[in-house]
Specification:
Length: 256
């Protein structure tokens, strides 16, 4: 059933929030991420083929384990955004946004009239009718469920205008794709990329919108902490699992 986002509430109260990108589709893994202490998990549909049933199992696993389920959609698909929110996703992550118009369409898809054009259902987000529709609409229209990702020079140029839109809960950086867009190759720590990330953070701070950093080094993490950044993406589960598996094997091989 719909609720005020615990992640946004934490940030509003001056606390920190930590998330992880889920690239290994598994309800069990969602539970593990929750019980490891993360506050939100981003279920990825941009780079993965996921069925509706599998997504629903992951959403339920997140809800039962107490972690906020966010969904990264492949594009601004107004019907998909509405269905995802109806299913229980707490936020919609928009990859590679490059204009305020794109984000405005997502906002329109997320809000009910008069703020948007979202169609209504009395399904699981209302507790199958337990929450009266007028109260449900009020709660949904007070939410900030849209999370743009800035992953290109065009997106960075559009960011000040994007930040003036309603319903933006957070902005995520995409340093690796940004590096590719800047013709720097897959170098997420390139100085030009780092400079762009600072500009992103400054725009977000000026607008009062949380900026979510994805530190690639301990020095980057220390820098963001010193800047007062309180929302962090800890990378993706696939990379963390792969590194842990290889490190464990290497430790056993060294023992011989």
């Amino acid at each position: 059933m719909i609720r005020t986002s615990p992640v946004i509430a934490r940030l509003d109260q001056g606390e920190s929030a930590y998330g992880l990108l889920n690239s290994v589709p598994s309800p069990l893994l969602c539970e593990m991420i929750a019980l490891a202490g993360y506050h939100f998990v981003i279920l990825d549909m941009e780079h993965l083929l996921r069925s509706g049933d599998e997504l629903m199992h992951c959403l339920r696993a997140c809800e039962s384990a107490g972690i906020s389920p966010w969904l990264r959609v492949p594009e601004v698909d107004t019907k998909l955004i509405g269905r995802a929110l109806d299913a229980g996703a707490e936020a919609i992550v928009l990859p590679r946004v490059e204009s305020a118009e794109e984000v405005a369409r997502a906002v329109e898809a997320a809000f009910f009239p008069p703020l948007g054009r979202r169609g209504i259902t009395g399904g699981r987000v209302t507790g199958f009718g337990r929450l009266p529709l007028p109260q449900y609409i009020e709660l949904a229209n007070r939410a900030r469920p849209i999370v743009p990702m800035i992953e290109s020079a065009a997106g960075l140029r559009a960011l000040p205008e994007i930040l003036r839109l309603p319903g933006i809960g957070m902005v995520l950086e995409g340093a690796l794709d940004l590096a590719l867009d800047l013709q720097l190759g897959p170098d997420a720590t390139h100085p030009r990329v780092w400079e762009a990330l600072q500009e992103m953070a400054s725009h977000c701070t000026a607008a009062g919108i949380p900026f979510c950093a994805n530190p690639r080094t301990s020095e980057q993490h220390q820098h963001w902490q010193a800047r007062g950044i309180r929302s962090y993406l800890a990378g993706e589960d696939r990379g963390l699992l792969n590194s842990a598996l290889k490190a464990r094997l290497a430790s056993l091989q060294i023992a011989h």
